[in-house]
Amino acid sequence: MQHWINPKGEVRTMSRSTNVFSHAYDAWQYYSPLEIRPKDFQNSPKYRINPYRFYPRLKVLPVLKRNGFKTSFYEVAPQVLLSSLLKDHCAETLLKTRQISWLRYYLESPHQHVLRNWQAVKICLKKNYTVSDFGIWEDYIELLRWFKKDITSALLVCPADLHLEHDRLVEKKQQLLRKKYLVKMRAEIEKAQGLYAEEKKQFFGLCFSGAGITISVLENVSEFMTEGDSLRHCVFTNEYFKKIDSLLFSARIDNKPIETIEVSLSKMEIAQCRGLRNHNSKHHKAIFSLMKKNLYQIRSRMKKKKAEQC
After folding, report:
1. For the purposes of burial, counting CB atoms within 10 Å of the CB of 220, is it exposed (0-12), middle (13-18) or buried (19 or more)?
2. Could you tell me if 39 and 47 are in contact, meaning their C-beta atoms sit under 8 angstroms apart?
3. For the packed helices 89-96 and 78-87, what is the interaxial angle rounded to 10 degrees?
4. Average pLDDT, whole number, for the chain?
5. How far is residue 32's CA from residue 51's CA, in Å, rounded to a whole number?
6. What is the pLDDT of residues 42-54, one digit of tens each?
7. C-alpha distances in Å from residue 291, one per residue of 132, 188, 276, 287
8. What's the average model confidence in pLDDT over 151-170?
9. Which single residue of 166, 192, 200, 269 could bond 140 by disulfide (Cβ 3.0 to 4.6 Å)?
10. What is the rounded distance in angstroms from the CA atom of residue 74 to the CA atom of residue 71?
11. What are the pLDDT digits (tens) for 253-283?
């Protein structure tokens, strides 16, 4: 493979062919001639092949020396580094300021956004701020941008604890998105509440307790959401309030949800009893026993409704 680079940083490459049916991208056909490749060849990993050793005596254009190049390629493929120094002011600045980790991230990472965040990058360079994780830092800058913060402020751009600030903004954003989601869901919840009340109203008010545990029927669709959020399970997202054959209860201690119980109305048995993240709580046996002892109360209300309908 040969790379020809002009003073403007434009590259044209001549290389042998490769075996297109190989699992390796560099399975060269050594008997094939060198052929000039199209410009989009630079997007191929074959173009970015990096030699593990260089001939020590180099002659380079004066403009490359002016732009910061001395003798080292810093483990960056030569054709990538040299062409970037000839046409890219960001690469030139990073090399001249000896920000080699930034330079390698900029030239090698397919997911980098250094140009988009260049103002923030320059602040980091000016303050000699060391970024411990470039991916997390760029996520953090995007969060600052989402919150419409000033990304030219060194205080914000160069946090003392990057991961802590990143996680704080992630949590804050999730809370705001959650509020927007609730506003959007309010109309749907109100509509679902009417249907749910029509189906299950004969069970509303059903509550029993024992051994410090209180078990009561979930009477509102919004309670399904609260229950699912508290215990991190899918009682709301999977719309259990629409299941005609199911009656849902919340088992609580000191008004704190411990487990959610689903009772099958047709079989009059406990279908499932789930705690945090669908695991059993340490009170599972007591909750299950209390629920089982009181299934007759559900049955009696069903009989009462049938009698009223007759």
Report:
1. middle
2. no
3. 110
4. 88
5. 21
6. 888 888 888 888 8
7. 53, 31, 18, 6
8. 91
9. 166
10. 9
11. 999 999 999 999 988 999 999 999 889 999 9
Structure tokens at 276: 């945090």
Determine the Cα–Cα distance for residues 269 and 299; give it in Å rounded to an integer: 10
DSSP the chain: -EEEE-TT--EEEEE--B-TTSSSTT-B-TTSPPEEPPGGGGGSTTTT---S---S-----HHHHHTT--S--TTS-HHHHHHHHHH-HHHHHHHHTT-HHHHHHHHH-TT--TTTTHHHHHHHHHTTPPPS-HHHHHHHHHHHHHTT--TT-HHHHS-SSHHHHHHHHHHHHHHHHHHHHHHHHHHHHHHHHHHHHHHHGGGTT-EEEETTEEEEE--SHHHHHHHHHHHTSSTTTTTGGG-TTEEEEEEEETTEEEEEEEEETTTTEEEEEE-GGGPPPTTHHHHHHHHHHTHHHHHHHHHHHHHHH-
Name 16's Cβ contacts closer than 8 Å, sequence gap at least 6.
1, 28, 29, 30, 32, 33, 34, 35
List, for residues 126-154, the tens digit of each pLDDT value: 998 988 889 889 999 999 999 999 989 99
Q: pLDDT at position 54, please? A: 83
Band (pLDDT 50/70/90 cuts) for residue 309 is: low
| pTM check: above 0.70 | no
pLDDT digits 0-9 by tens, 68-125:
888 888 888 888 899 999 999 999 999 998 888 889 899 888 888 999 999 999 999 8
Instruction: Assign residue 102 a region (left: φ > 0; alpha: ψ between -120 and 50; beta: otherwise).
Output: alpha
